[in-house]
């Protein structure tokens, strides 16, 4: 089991992330190069945002890209889930927040990743409202102490940006917001390519065409990953040495679309 606030350098590389090209460029700029060449930024007096919010539909690479950023920067990565913080630390949420930030400082450079930031919002009529309020207040104190958190970058993630506590969105907090969309048809091919790197793939499999096919319409990265795994499983069961185009079975996309027609088309 994972200890709260445990840090390590993730093994996700840029090449494991398909698409998301402009997002990657932003992060190169805002985080990776700042960690790698701090003197240059200092010399030019560049003072950029250190807090980010990734928002968009589930399974499209928010966690993945945050890990890749840490890996590329050679930084530690701490993964915190919003709801965990709430449930687990009722009554001592503030202390938990302080501990997490102090851990992040001691292992800087560090990416502090807050999943499901929307959970840190007081909902009307909720018993635990006061817990949330105190937790958010402590979070604001830590976020605002930017001088003390040198080398600590904050990345939040959410599927429901509209539910986030507005105070958290100000500059210096989760100040820079970046949209992580559902991949388009060409990006689906790029994601399949990234996912296929560690799989034995037959030369006749055209991942670009699969990505462009309507059968994968509205597929998220997570859906494409499931498709790739199903195909690998089938290949193994049928004792085929490599994943062939026809081994990919039907996988339901989150939107209810299915890859079946594509698969049939390949047979
Ligand atoms: P959630 O909002 O549900 O937390 P998320 O946006 O953080 O989702 P990830 O956890 O990053 O999504 O993605 C889930 C899995 O889907 C990844 O581990 C990876 O296998 C695959 N995946 C998603 N997006 C991509 C992508 N752009 N490139 C390669 N793989 C991807």
From TrEMBL:
Boundaries of every AAA+ ATPase domain copy: 48-184
Domain of life: Eukaryota
Protein family per UniProt: Belongs to the AAA ATPase family.
Protein name: Cell division control protein 48 homolog C-like protein
Organism: Tanacetum coccineum
Phylogenetic placement of the source organism: Eukaryota, Viridiplantae, Streptophyta, Embryophyta, Tracheophyta
């Amino acid at each position: 089991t994972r200890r709260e606030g445990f840090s390590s350098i993730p093994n996700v590389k840029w090449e494991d992330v398909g698409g998301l090209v402009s997002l990657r460029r932003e992060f190169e700029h805002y985080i990776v190069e700042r960690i790698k060449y701090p003197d240059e930024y200092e010399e030019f007096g560049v003072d950029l945002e250190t807090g980010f919010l990734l928002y968009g539909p589930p399974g499209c690479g928010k966690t993945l890209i945050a890990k890749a950023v840490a890996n590329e920067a050679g930084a530690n990565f701490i993964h915190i889930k919003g709801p965990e913080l709430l449930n687990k630390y009722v009554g001592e949420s503030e202390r938990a927040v302080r501990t997490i930030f102090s851990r992040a400082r001691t292992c800087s450079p560090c990416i502090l990743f807050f999943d499901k930031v929307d959970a840190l919002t007081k909902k009307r009529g909720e018993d635990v409202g006061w817990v949330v309020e105190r937790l958010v207040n402590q979070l604001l104190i830590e976020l605002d102490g930017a001088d003390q958190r040198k080398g600590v970058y904050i990345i939040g993630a959410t599927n429901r940006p509209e539910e986030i506590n507005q105070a958290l969105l100000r500059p210096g907090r989760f100040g820079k917001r970046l949209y992580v969309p559902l991949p388009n048809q060409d990006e689906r091919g790029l994601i399949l390519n990234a996912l296929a790197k560690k799989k034995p793939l037959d030369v006749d499999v055209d991942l670009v065409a699969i990505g462009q096919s309507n059968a994968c319409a509205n597929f998220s990265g997570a859906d494409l990953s499931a498709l790739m795994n199903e195909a690998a499983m089938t290949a193994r069961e049928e004792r085929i040495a490599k994943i062939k185009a026809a081994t990919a079975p039907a996988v339901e996309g989150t939107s209810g679309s299915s890859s079946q027609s594509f698969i049939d088309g390949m047979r």
